[in-house]
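seq as requested:
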Amino acid sequence: MKLIKKIVEIYKIQFLVAVTLFAALMAIMVPRDPLNIAMIVLGCILGTFVSDLDYIIYAFFTDPTEDFSVTLKGYLRHKDYINALSYVFYHKDDVKEKTLHSVLFQVILAGLTFFMIFSPLNLFTRILILATFANSLYRIGEAFFAEKANDWFWPLKEAPSQKGVKIYIILNVLALLIMIQFL
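C-alpha cells:
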C-alpha cells in the first residue's frame, strides 16, 4: 500500500496526462468491448512509466559505477522499491545525458508512433506507444518550464534557442493530436 501511495504521489501529473489521453481515446474510438477498454486503460497507465526505465538503463548499463547507479542498484537488490522510487525522484537531475529523455529518442518515438498508428498491431501496443509519446511530451514541457530543456538536446552539438524548443514542442503536440485522430 505504501508503494502505491508513493507512486501516486510522484506520478500524479503523469497520471493526469494518462487519464486525459484515456478520455480522448474513449471519445474518439468509442470501444464497446471491455477487453479493448482494458487495453486502453493499461496502455495509458503503463506509458507513464516507460520514460523512467531510463534510470534503470543508466544504473545497469550506461554508467554502473556512478554513485547514483550504485545506490539505485542497492535499493533494487534489497527490493526496497519505495526508497528506490524516492531516490530516483529526488536525484533525477544527477543523471546527465539520459537515453530516453533526449530529443533523439523523442524523434524516434514520434516516428514509431506514426508508424504504429497505421499498422495492424494490437490495440494495447499502439496505445502504449502513444501514451509513452504523450508522457515524453509532458516531460520535455516540464523541463522547458524549469529552464532545463537543453538537457534533452544533449545528442546535438548545439542546443536550440528557447524559441526553437518551444516550436519543437508545439509541433510535436500537434503531431500527437493528429495521430490520435487516426487511431
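The chain has a mean pLDDT of 91.
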